[in-house]
Amino acid sequence: MRNKFDRQLAKLHDMMIAMGGMIEKAITFAIHALVQQDETMAKQAIAFDTEIDQMEKEIEAMCLRLLLQQQPVAKDLRVISAALKMITDMERIGDQAADISEITLFLIGETYIKKLEHIPMMAAATSKMVTESIDAYVKMDLELAKQVIDYDDVVDDLFDNVKNELIELIQHDKANGSQAIDLLMIAKYFERIGDHATNIAEWVVFSITGKHVGEK
Fold this sequence. Notes:
Layout: H1 2-36, H2 39-70, H3 74-107, H4 118-139, H5 142-172, H6 177-209
Helix pairs in contact: 1-2, 1-3, 1-4, 2-3, 3-6, 4-5, 4-6, 5-6
């Protein structure tokens, strides 16, 4: 019975990794579409959201089967419960990558009011957080999970830089206002992705220690 449970748990881990990989792709496509003003890439990032939603449903079903059929012990119960919580944040990340690309579609053809520097850095940072939070879950790596939580400060600092730069551009010329708001919204979505990645890492901490430090 335990061997069967361990095989199913391994399958759950594989599904979590696959969902994480899809989220990374969505973020990568979204930022590429923004920087390159690539309509096709933006639409692909939006399309990923449907696949991510489907993955969430499949993982949820797997978790419920494990809970109902296998009667897991306390540690296993935390691992499965954490997965159920994590996929909610993962699904929201997919939503936000799609939202970023929706805004990008409106910006295609416009000349950007500033060089996109800190927003791509935010995308890279949040993608790193997502990857490492899933790795921490699969490997039961407490220190890596804590590093992800701490790394959210990097994303917050980048968001503050973007916000301050855009405010300055609006003050300099009000004609910059419309695009500045769009870019600020995109930066805010990336900040929220960082928050969700932090939530994921916090659930990893819970799965290992039984203590949850609190959701954002």
